[in-house]
Amino acid sequence: MKKSRLLLPAALACVALAASAVPLKTDVARSSVAAVFKQMNVPVEAKFKKFNAQIDYDPVKPDASKATVDIDTASLDVGEAEMNKEVAKKEWFDSAKYPKASFVSSSIKPAGAGKLTVAGKLLIKGKSMDVTFPLTVKADGGKQVFEGALPIRRLAFNIGEGEWKDTSMVADEVVIKFRVTAAQ
């Protein structure tokens, strides 16, 4: 009798752990984060070379899922070495003072087959904002692929100070596009 009383709590604990979100390992080679914007009205897609995504995902119970993404702001590649140095300067990302931009989810809700609505805090250059965006998720060869786009206004985060506040050179609208491939 004593043995069965001890086994029941242990069994319940195992079931609870099995039902929670599972941490996934990001496949960096098959993942990307980019900033899409217009410079002099010409579309530009610049990729961040360094980022880390931590995703705990349960496809059966997406509400139990959570995500954290950290991006190395100095790793933005706009396609030219001089411009890469420029965007790390104080007027843009101020990467010396703010080396990382981050996103931490506060909720992940189902929004239809293969779709989620994600809410959380976005922190860039010391400014934090609540954001919500749609996300698609699909299984691909034993991995989960998460794709989405988050529109922001760069000036709300003080990205482009001084003369760079002029939106005729670089538009205020920026879309953060991402694709994260991950597996257990």
The number of helical runs is: 2
Structurally, the number of domains stands at: 1
Overall structural class, as computed from helix and strand content, comes to: mainly beta
CATH topology: Lipocalin
The global form is elongated
* Uncertain residue segments: 1-19
Architecture in CATH? Answer: Beta Barrel
**Which percent range describes the beta-strand content?**
over 45%
Largest sheet entry: 8 strands, antiparallel, barrel
Q: Average pLDDT across residues?
A: 89
Taken in chain order, the helices and strands follow as HEEEEEEHEEEEE
The helix content, as a percent range, equals 10-25%
Number of strands: 11
**CA-CA gap between termini:** 38 Å
CATH class: Mainly Beta
Rg result: 20 Å
CATH superfamily: Lipid/polyisoprenoid-binding, YceI-like
Trace the largest sheet across and list its strands: 1-4-5-7-8-9-10-11
Keywords: Signal
Organism: Massilia eurypsychrophila
Signal peptide: 1-21
Domain Lipid/polyisoprenoid-binding YceI-like: 23-183
Provide a compact summary of the structure:
The chain is mainly β.
Description:
- The chain has a single domain (21-183), classed as Beta Barrel (Lipocalin), CATH 2.40.128.
- Helix content is 14%, strand content 52%.
- The chain is mainly beta.
- An eight-stranded antiparallel barrel has the order 1-4-5-7-8-9-10-11.
- It has helices spanning 2-19, 81-87, and strands spanning 22-26, 32-39, 42-48, 51-57, 66-72, 76-77, 100-110, 115-124, 127-140, 143-153, 170-183.
- The chain is elongated and about 50 Å long.
- It has two helices and eleven strands; from the N terminus they run αββββββαβββββ.
